[in-house]
Each structure stands twice: as structure tokens, then as C-alpha cells.
Design goal:
With 354 residues, the chain is of the alpha/beta class. It has one domain (6-353). Strand 7 (225-226) and strand 8 (235-237) form a beta hairpin. It has helices at 12-21, 44-54, 69-77, 82-94, 104-119, 123-128, 151-167, 208-215, 240-243, 295-299, 311-314, 317-330, 332-343, 347-350, and strands spanning 6-10, 28-33, 62-66, 133-142, 176-182, 198-202, 225-226, 235-237, 256-260, 288-293, 351-353. It is built from 14 helices and eleven strands. It starts with 5 loop residues before the first strand and ends with a strand. Helix 2 packs parallel to helix 13 (332-343) and helix 3 (69-77) packs antiparallel against helix 4. Strands 1, 2, 3, 4, 5, 6, 7, 8, 9, 10 and 11 form an eleven-stranded mixed sheet that branches.
């Protein structure tokens, strides 16, 4: 039996549609991307195949929704040469380097530098003018003491938020509100998502970069982005705080959502990572196709895990760079497998319930 390095799962609606009609990229209405920092490196080869084999067949409008690193990936998807943008992002991300004891300001500056390399001179305009893809970025606007940039105050706010979240996810609304930066040409299925306070801001040339930086601004690691143009005054932070794996409506009733992911399961919010009982709303993923590396594939990666932020502390810079490059090289096998599944129309037979 051929080793299967990828897992394909689908919500009930997507499962039924694909079993009856087969998989067709023309049915995709949304592509979703989760928070996860360096974990994205296990997807960078898959992104290339999606951009080469699926995106050219999309029938627009197709909505891109990401938080944190997901939004950064999609800033590449919607450029005129998306594969070249992914390659620039991958190179800049792997090669990022810091002083021996970088502070929050140094890390924040580096984040801006990397985004500058990803977007180049024309990326912003290409994203906003893309003929098929509609880019949306979910951030959070910090409230009350969670808006402080003083380390001890913000740390205390996060501890309190995490404690209350364990009782009820809705309590996060005391500390954060959703802030959706949206492409106004076509409104997405999650435009009126409920559950938390929601601010909606039209994506423009003067706020796109700030929105992308903000959704990757991990509290206590990067500075929040203050007073983004077109948005309410305040401090904007990592969208994964509420929408870690995007527990919001993924697609319209007659379309499918494609979700390349690090894992074969979804965790609603950043504070839910250790709360095994906290699951996404089944309605939100009814028409979602989740593609992820198998546990066996991950176990065979260098260091036997997907890269993550802890690698900066665990490895010396040169060793971390070598490790991450080795992981990306190994993930070429994922890309080859996805290519084969699409070419041979095997996705239907590989599907498991999500």
C-alpha cells in the first residue's frame, strides 16, 4: 500500500457534495488559513500546488480569510505572481535573525521588514485589484487592560482572559473584539459573524499592511498596531486570540471551503489549545475540506515535529535555519501527493469525516 502523507477530511455538507458530484475547484468559494506562526512552513509546498493547480480554476469571487500567519500566506496568494511571493516569504521567514536578546521592538521591526519583502512595491495594489480573490484579514481590537503595552499589565490581562475563557469562551469579549478588514467588492460569508463584538473595516491601500501586521502581532511578543487607518482608535492584535483556527462560517450554502491546515482538527481560540472539550461549531465547517499532514508524516520530520516559535529558543540560529530548510524540503512529498490526488481525481476516495 502506498504511504499516505496527507489526510483529507470534510464536513457533512462537503462530504455529501463531493461523494455525489466529485471534487471540482470551481465549487470553492473560500480558502481559509489559521494562525500558527512557524507551523506554516509545513504548508509552504502545499501552497505552491494549490496556487498552480487549484487557484487558476477558481470561479470568483473566492474569499481568502486568515488570521496571523494565515493572512500572511494569503497576502502572497493574491499577488500577480503568487508562487514567487510564497518563495520570498519562505526565504525571508526562515532567514530572519535577531540579536542575542531581542526585545519586542526588534521583533516587531523584523516583522515589518519581512512583510515589505513579501509585498514588494506592487503587492498591495495587486491584492486589492485581484480579479478573482477577495482578501479579508481578521484581527482583534484590544479592550480595557488588554490594550496596555506595559508587559506586566498585558500579561495579567492574558492570564485573566485565559482563566475566564476556560469557563466561557464568550468572556473573551471583555478583553477583545473582532476587527474584520474586508474587501468591499464582495462581502464574505463571515461578514456578520456573531458571538463577539465585531468591527468591520474596509480594506484600503492605506491600511492593508497594518492589518496584516496586526493579525500577526502576538501579545507580549510583538507590539500591537495602534490606530489603523479607517478603524476605530485603539490597539490591534493577533486575530488568533479569538479566531485561532477560524471558528466562523467558512462558506456559502452552495460553495465549498478549502482549508490547508497544520493539523487534522480545529481549535476555536488561542486560549483553547489545552481545552480538549472546546470544539468549533459544526455548522461553520459543514462545507469545509481540511487538508493536513498525517501524524506519521510529522513523526518522520526532522526533530519529529512541525516547526514552531519555540525553535527560536531551542536552537542556535544556524541550526534552526538548517532544520527549517530540511522540513520544507521534506514537505515536497506533501506537494507531490496533493498533485497526484488532484490529477488522478482521488480526493473523493480519500475523504474522511471532519
Amino acid at each position: 500500500m502506498t504511504t499516505q502523507n496527507l489526510v483529507f477530511k470534510a464536513g457533512p455538507g462537503a462530504f455529501d457534495t463531493i461523494r455525489r458530484h466529485g471534487f471540482s475547484p470551481e465549487r470553492i468559494g473560500t480558502i481559509a488559513g489559521a494562525s500558527g506562526g512557524a507551523k506554516w512552513l509545513v504548508l509552504s509546498q502545499l501552497d505552491r500546488i494549490i496556487l498552480q493547480s487549484i487557484v487558476p480554476r477558481l470561479e470568483g469571487p473566492v474569499h481568502l480569510i486568515g488570521t496571523s500567519i494565515g493572512a500572511w500566506r494569503f497576502a502572497c496568494y493574491a499577488q500577480a505572481d503568487p508562487v514567487a511571493a510564497i518563495e520570498r516569504f519562505e526565504e525571508a521567514y526562515i532567514d530572519q535573525s535577531y540579536s542575542e536578546a531581542p526585545d519586542i521592538h526588534e521583533i516587531t521591526r523584523k516583522s515589518r521588514e519581512i512583510l515589505g519583502e513579501v509585498l514588494g512595491e506592487t503587492g498591495v495594489a495587486e491584492i486589492l485589484d485581484h480579479p478573482v480573490l477577495r482578501t479579508h484579514v481578521m484581527t482583534v481590537r484590544a479592550r480595557n487592560i488588554a490594550a496596555s503595552e506595559q508587559h506586566h499589565i498585558l500579561a495579567a490581562a492574558l492570564v485573566i482572559a485565559a482563566s475566564l475563557n476556560a469557563v466561557s469562551r464568550r468572556t473573551l469579549g471583555l478583553f477583545f473584539e473582532r476587527a474584520l478588514f474586508f474587501d468591499a467588492r464582495d462581502l464574505p460569508p463571515f461578514f456578520d459573524v456573531s458571538g463577539f463584538p465585531l468591527q468591520k473595516i474596509m480594506m484600503r491601500r492605506d491600511n492593508l499592511e497594518d492589518a496584516i501586521v496586526a493579525t500577526g502581532a502576538i501579545p507580549l511578543v510583538l507590539s500591537g498596531v495602534r490606530d489603523i487607518s479607517g478603524a476605530l482608535p485603539g490597539v490591534y492584535r493577533d486575530g488568533g486570540v479569538i479566531d485561532y483556527h477560524l471558528d466562523l462560517p467558512h462558506s456559502e450554502a452552495d460553495r465549498l471551503a478549502l482549508y490547508p491546515h497544520f493539523y487534522d482538527h480545529l481549535v476555536p481560540g488561542w486560549f483553547d489549545k489545552r481545552l480538549g472539550w472546546r470544539k468549533p461549531d459544526p455548522v461553520n465547517v459543514d462545507r469545509t475540506i481540511l487538508i493536513s499532514p498525517s501524524e506519521e508524516f510529522v513523526a518522520g520530520l526532522p526533530n519529529a515535529k512541525i516547526p514552531d516559535r519555540s525553535d527560536f529558543m531551542t536552537f542556535e540560529p544556524q541550526a534552526r535555519v538548517r532544520l527549517w530548510r530540511d522540513v520544507v524540503a521534506e514537505c515536497e512529498r506533501l506537494a507531490a501527493e496533493l498533485h497526484d490526488v488532484l490529477e488522478k481525481e482521488e480526493l473523493e476516495s480519500r475523504l474522511k469525516p471532519l
